[in-house]
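Hey team,

Filing this mostly as a record. A colleague (T.K.) asked me to run one chain through the structure pipeline before their review meeting, and I want the input and output archived in the tracker in case anyone asks later how it was produced. No errors, nothing strange. Just documentation.

Input sequence:
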Amino acid sequence: MKKLLLFICCIGLSFAAVAKGEMPLISGTIKGIGNDTVFVRHVVLNNPVLKRTDTVFATKDRFSYTKKLTEPTEFTLYTNHSFLKRYNGRLFLPETRMIKLVMRPGGTVALSGVLDQSVLTYSVKGDVFNETFASRRTKNLKIKADLVKKELQIDSMAYSGVDEKIVDKMDAELQIERTKSQLTDLEYIKTNPSQDLSAYYLNAMPMDTFLIYVKLLDPSVRSGILAKGLDIQEEQLKKFKAIEDAQKKVSIGTIAPDFELKSINGNRVKLSDLKGKFVVIDFWGAWCFWCMKGVPQMKEAYAKYKDKVEFIGVDVRDTEDVWKSTVAKYELNWVHVMNLTTADVPVLYGVSGYPTKLILDPELRIVARIIGESPEFYKKLDELFK
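Output structure:
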């Protein structure tokens, strides 16, 4: 009954689309799916937060999906038949049994393929980008399928009590083979710097590889339809790189980097002005579960040591209203500043997890750095001020 209702709904959507004169964004005939739900997962490439999953119903291996796009969007299509089962019974959806497309505003594609017991093979017509994308996938499909088979084999061995050393060795070999399979995409990027597909492949590469090869892309690609996504990725990876570098420099025994931020009352707070006092810097946010869970103990520590230590809470990622209302609601009575500056203080300090707490001595030298809500922070305070 549920499938019948979904089928009627999809027919209604198709008639409405036809009435408006809209062509399906994606239409396909995939032998082996029969009469089944087709899941259509999509994410806007230039804004990965915008994602959702729609469903349409396939009838006798045929389906169509209509949607109006305003930005380039990645689509992943699969059915209930696409899943494999792991040894422990959990379902597993390998890339060898799904369809991947990158659709642009105004574009349409037609798919044809076969879903069998091992893989989903398909070809695409109507768009050069996706035609090339599908063709390259088909070329590497056997290698990918062998990797999936090996992954399931290792999974089975691990649950069957096979010697852990043997399983670990096979898993290490699998990771090497996966890395080798990525090299074919890297080779494509090197030899096709003027193709948008190179930009798409590059976004899936490791950080160091991305930062090197993004410079090799043709200006037409850097300013093309996937440009915004590349810019977002480059900015994020540069930030991660800066955090990694900062973590090497901002370590126990080093002088804490100076910064200046405005307090919740609008006053200027400059770290170097606090020289001569012990200082606690707490990087936190109202969105952070563990930050908020630690509030009661943090308040106890402040009440206990406020005459000996200057506490500074550095809020990260909240809106100003949320920041101020949270400080007021929980009566967090120490100094509070917000990371609203081009200096980006969490990056300056190499903060990669929240909360992160640092204890500085009167010379502003770091004596402790604790990531997460840990008893270690409170134990260290007790040791310093017995």
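Quick notes for T.K.: Residues 1-19 have pLDDT under 50 and may be disordered. Residues 260-384 form a domain with the Glutaredoxin fold (CATH 3.40.30.10).
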